[in-house]
Amino acid sequence: MTAPKMLVIQPDESDPIGPLGDWLTEAGAELDIRLLPDRTLPADLDGYTGVVCLGGGMSANDDDAHPWLADVRKLLSKAAGARIPTLAICLGGQLLAVALGGSVGTGDQGPEVGPGLVSKKDAAWTDPLFADLPLMQDVLQFHNDAITRLPAGAELLASSPRYAYQAFRFDRCAYGVQFHIETTPDVVLDWARQSPEMAELTRPDVLTPENLARVHADITETWRPFAHRFVRLVSGDLAPAADRQRTLPMA
């Protein structure tokens, strides 16, 4: 059987696919990683059965400094329209939200930094990727911007007290998450060095190598099986979410 081929969009050198790439390939996926802007995006998604979009330090609407972001949003919109399974992470999730008609802005509760928990919402319990996750999931946060409005018709899958829109699904198989599951302790420590003003928002013992090693072990336990399920979704072995039932107005 041919390995499912995924396009991996990497908007920023500082956020590689990391362990997530290992989890996807060990489940049988073939990854085509495009680090922007050095490697151009494909004109279309012919030959790809899945899409992953990673995070980055820029804003989702920062087209003046990064004009290629418009092409990323266009490709994510094409993937969703064609029902190609998509997983978009942090900046990627924000780009997906904007591409589908939602909005992103500076978070009104300030930056969210460090290890955290998000909780499943009602729709997650019947979602093919989220149903088997625990009620509370370990994640890594590092963002200034946040999704401020979901695309029309999107299903909210996970939330947190500070920022409600932590994970969503659009249509049957386009997923966006505000948090990170692909990081390593070294990557997070590098972000903290690059953004000391954000790192200072956490307690001194949070962003230590020892604590981050424990956190990433918990992230692996939760999200490695999730990544395997995503490969099954991409390959067609796992059915996507059911179409939402739309009720007509009474005459």
From TrEMBL:
PROSITE patterns per record: GATASE_TYPE_1
Keyword Transferase: yes
Residue intervals of the Glutamine amidotransferase domain: 45-185
A GO molecular-function annotation: transferase activity
Pfam families in UniProt: GATase
Keyword entries, A-Z: Glutamine amidotransferase, Transferase
Keyword Transferase: yes
GO cellular component annotations of the record: cytosol
Taxonomic superkingdom: Bacteria
UniProt name for this protein: Glutamine amidotransferase class-I/GMP synthase
